[in-house]
Amino acid sequence: MRQKVGIALALAKEAVVLFLDEPTSGLDPQASNEFSKLLQVMSKKGVTVFMVTHDLFRAKEVANRIGIMSKGQLVKELSASDVSHSELETIYLQAVSGTLRAGAANS
Hints:
This protein is α+β, with helices and mostly antiparallel strands and 107 residues long. It is built from four helices and four strands, in the order αβαβαββα. It has helices at 2-12, 29-44, 56-62, 85-97, and strands at 17-21, 48-52, 65-70, 73-79. A hairpin with a 2-residue loop joins β3 (65-70) and β4.
């Protein structure tokens, strides 16, 4: 409910940027799906959304760009449309296991 209230406040204030930290944590699948649709609508209206999440499926679904961090370093940045869900999972697992080097951020 807090996530919904926060988004409602952002809409009311006509925010142009949102910073979200695990916004779907604790939501059931239906609420998470509704939240993702809302983020997509806001994005189409020009709102920039920065979202931290461990939910790779949701990230792929709503993002234009995805950055993967490991130990405080950006180790990979990619276009969401250029990667499948399974490829994103593989890249993420490589990043957290340390087999993806920090110098590969934009490759």
